[in-house]
Amino acid sequence: MHLPAWSQLWLLSQIEWQRLFLTRRGWLTIAASCLLWFVLLRYLVMPLSQWMLDPAINEGAEMVAGWVDVRQLLLWPRPELSLFWLLALVLSPMAAVLFSAGQICRDRSRGTLRLYCLRISRSSLLLGRFLGQLLVQGTLLAVTLAASLALALWQGAALSLELLSAALFCWVFVMLCLLPFTALMSLMSVWLNSSRAAVSLAIVVLSVLPVVLGVLAYYWPGVLPLFGWLPGAQIPALMNSQPWQSWAPLALPVGQALLLLALSLYSFQRRGI
Predict the structure, then answer these.
(1) Phi, psi dihedrals of residue 63, rounded to the nearest 5°
(2) Which terminus of the chain is more exposed, N or C, with fewer CB under 10 A?
């Protein structure tokens, strides 16, 4: 007896999430994430947040690195969260590409893909894997966000509704930004037979497309608006956002994710297993 489609999706996403805690590879992922964020929080976020807490820098704060406006970051409830926001926007998409590469090709290489497809539909399998990867990424993001909150409390912040609201904003908006990258890896995983090849192709696509568009824009300036349709194009605009300031930039990643998932489903239905 076949399960309803929603039950299949929930079961597959749970299996993907459980692998994070029940397999050696999952524990290695957790250990690597914790180590990376410990280094960032201890040696980058902590000293920078102490510097930003100095009232003297409120006067004459200038643009940093062309994208980041310190004056906007100072308007957050705590600098620890604003710095976490910047780091998560930059690092989380790269982590999504690395960790979600084996959604379909992992089963294909192990020979279990045909077995799965005897019991469930291909669309349920692909969407279940996709949702499972979002659960994994959301869990890891929540853990690192909790560590940032703990750092803020340790440095003298008062636990308040405003602080918790800013933390929730970080989690929700970063997860929405990760949607197109996770969906892209669904497509790469359908096209290719190994996680390593999927990651390599995704890196090539994400790095070559801006170069190609840049060359085309040199000769035909009319293609410049296409830069705004690339995955992650909204991230520079979000860097200087304040909590719950605007939802407009997030329409793009949601649309990109839906388009990439539709292409993944079409490719998966057309390709043999």
Answers:
(1) -70, 140
(2) N
